[in-house]
């Protein structure tokens, strides 16, 4: 029995498609082999045909094309403003911050507070995740 490879990188699958296409394997057979090794959710038959067509048209790069994404509204200045507001009032809610920063979603605000600033909710106060000895004693 063959070993199934779980969660392959996209470029890895495209490399296999490019290799098998160079050996003149038909797209249907390429898809069958991909499903056999990588599982049912690896890539649709239509996507395999698309990649075979691109490789036949001269594409050699198996990596994603560089494209511009949505610009991030999170920057160091915003993180500093949030940190300043937290230090001014530790009994805030994400909703209160959302009213003050409507351009940022509540999810992004929560991630900034918990991941970038390393605060966590303790009772009704937001405190740093890493408490000093003085804080722990209090």
TrEMBL record:
Query: What Pfam families does this protein's entry cite?
Result: HTH_48
Every copy of the Mos1 transposase HTH domain together lies at: 13-58
The residues forming the signal peptide are none
Q: What is this protein called?
A: Mos1 transposase HTH domain-containing protein
Q: Which organism is it from?
A: Araneus ventricosus (Orbweaver spider)
Q: What is the lineage of its organism?
A: Eukaryota, Metazoa, Ecdysozoa, Arthropoda, Chelicerata
């Amino acid at each position: 029995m063959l070993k199934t490879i779980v969660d392959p990188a996209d470029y890895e699958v495209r490399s296999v498609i490019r290799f098998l296409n160079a050996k003149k394997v038909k797209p249907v057979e390429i898809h069958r082999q991909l499903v056999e090794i990588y599982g049912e959710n690896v890539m649709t038959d239509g996507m395999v045909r698309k990649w075979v067509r691109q490789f036949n048209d001269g594409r050699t790069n198996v990596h994603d094309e560089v494209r511009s994404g949505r610009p991030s509204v999170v920057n160091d200045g915003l993180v500093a403003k949030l940190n300043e507001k937290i230090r001014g009032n530790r009994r805030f809610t994400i909703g209160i911050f959302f009213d003050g920063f409507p351009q940022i979603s509540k999810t992004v605000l929560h991630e900034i507070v918990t991941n970038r600033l390393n605060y966590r909710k303790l009772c009704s106060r937001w405190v740093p995740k890493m408490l000093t000895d003085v804080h722990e004693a209090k």
